[in-house]
Write a structure and sequence with these properties.
The structure is a single chain. This protein has 390 residues and is mostly helical. 68% of the residues lie in helices and 0% in strands. It has 19 helices and no strands. The protein is globular. The protein starts with 7 loop residues before the first helix and ends with a helix. About 1% of the residues have low confidence.
């Protein structure tokens, strides 16, 4: 019997998924605000008008892409845990998904500011259900863990599985999968409740901030809450009690404010690096100190998270070139130290491990997942060091 030709409904479903996949890839690569429907159409190999046969606008396409990622997570979980399969089956399936469809575990975290409240609630509920299943499978394997610890480890696994989308390390799919599995298995040996107390640096009393600092503080809070694109200069001015046009006396544009926030966070990180290197020369202790410094910086001010989360807005901007270079050099320093700690690690392996560790705390802060807990910083540092085998 000859094969049946695909029906128009089947072709329509395939085309819709093709658009969703193209959109997800572009949103992750460039940022939602920097992608147009025409860009998505070109990537999918269709005309722009044909996109409207399936989606009303770019926002509805984003919502479909995020929900498709949740669908993938749910299907992955159902397959892995079918018929009483154990955590090993789940680990294997999650690692496959991390390489084949990494956006499933990361797109929502990068684009939640562009979804409606109802859409975010739906994604949150479904994602928490997935994490609950993962935590249950882990708890069945490790009876020493509390429910809260199992959930925290499950979230860390999700962060690591989606971390391949935040860098461009050249590595084959098979090798990337092996590295992700190795890191996830490290996570699953940890006990967050055993995290040692987190020692913060002593607070230094400084002179009152200038108007420029007030603008940066207000902008960072607004960008962290609503995203860079949806905040206007007038709102930033209003937050510090000045008219919007008065902001331009201090900064030529909103982008310049974002760049200054990034520069300020970079300066704080560099100060932390100098303090760490002033205390020891041992590579393992240096890297552990870098972890502590990073966690302290990202949990004490929104600057670092804002700079990281809005990096697509800085891409290609001449005024932000130096900032992007600083960020790359900072990550490279971590990789160099990790290679000194374990000389058998190759640079691409080190890059995967470092970005996985950073993703754990970046994701938790971005999604405000437990960040108000007094133990948050200690547990983040503990999980990051565990992934790096420190």
């Amino acid at each position: 019997m000859p094969d049946r030709k695909p029906t128009s409904r089947t072709r329509g479903a395939d085309r819709k998924r093709q658009l969703v996949d193209s959109a997800a890839a572009l949103f992750l690569q460039r940022g939602y605000a920097q992608v147009s429907l025409a860009d998505i159409a070109r990537s999918a190999g269709v005309t722009a008008p044909s996109v409207y046969r399936h989606f009303d606008d770019k926002q509805s396409l984003l919502a479909a892409a995020v929900l498709a990622g949740v669908d993938d997570l749910e299907s992955c979980t159902d397959r892995a845990l079918a018929d009483g399969a154990d955590a090993n089956s789940l680990i294997s399936t999650v690692c496959d998904l991390a390489v084949q469809r990494p956006q499933a575990a990361s797109l929502w975290r990068w684009t939640s500011n562009y979804l409606t409240t109802e859409q975010n609630k739906l994604v949150a509920v479904r994602t928490r259900e997935v994490i609950g299943h993962w935590a249950s499978a882990l708890a069945a394997r490790r009876t020493d863990l509390s429910e809260r610890e199992a959930v925290q480890l499950a979230w860390a696994v999700l962060s690591v599985s989606g971390s391949l989308t935040v860098h461009h390390t050249r590595m084959s799919g098979a090798r990337a999968r092996d590295e992700i599995e190795k890191l996830i298995r490290r996570i699953l040996t940890l006990s967050p409740a055993a995290a040692p107390p987190f020692a913060t640096s002593p607070t230094v009393t400084s002179v009152p901030g200038s108007r420029r600092d007030e603008i940066l503080d207000a902008a960072a809070e607004l960008f962290a809450d609503r995203g860079y694109t949806d905040v206007g200069v007038d709102e930033i001015g209003g937050a510090v009690g000045i008219a919007g046009p008065s902001v331009y006396k201090h900064f030529p544009s909103k982008l310049a404010i974002l760049v200054a926030i990034g520069q300020r966070s970079g300066a704080r990180l560099e100060a932390g690096v100098m303090a760490v290197y002033g205390a020891t020369s041992d590579p393992a202790k240096l890297l552990a100190g870098m972890v502590d410094s990073y966690v302290e910086t990202i949990t004490s001010t929104p600057d670092l998270s804002v700079s990281f989360n809005n990096s697509p807005a800085l891409a290609g901007q001449a005024s932000a070139t130096d900032l992007v270079d600083v960020q790359r050099r900072y990550v490279a320093r971590w990789v160099d130290l990790l290679m000194q700690v374990d000389p058998e690690i190759k640079r691409d392996q080190g890059a995967v491990a470092v970005h996985a560790a950073l993703s754990i705390v970046n994701d938790a802060v971005r999604m405000r997942r437990g960040s108000e807990s007094p133990q948050f910083a200690a547990r983040m540092a503990y999980l990051m060091k565990g992934v790096l085998a420190l």
